[in-house]
Amino acid sequence: MSLPIKFRPILLIFIFGAVAIALTSGVLGYQASLIPASRLIKPDELVKILQSPKSEKPLMIQVGSHVLYTQAHIPGSEYIGPASSETGLQSLRKRVESLPRSKFIVLYCGCCPWSHCPNVKPADDALHAMGFTNVKILYIADNFGADWVEKGYPVGKGD
Question: CA-based angle 146:69:57, to the nearest 5?
Answer without folding.
Answer: 85
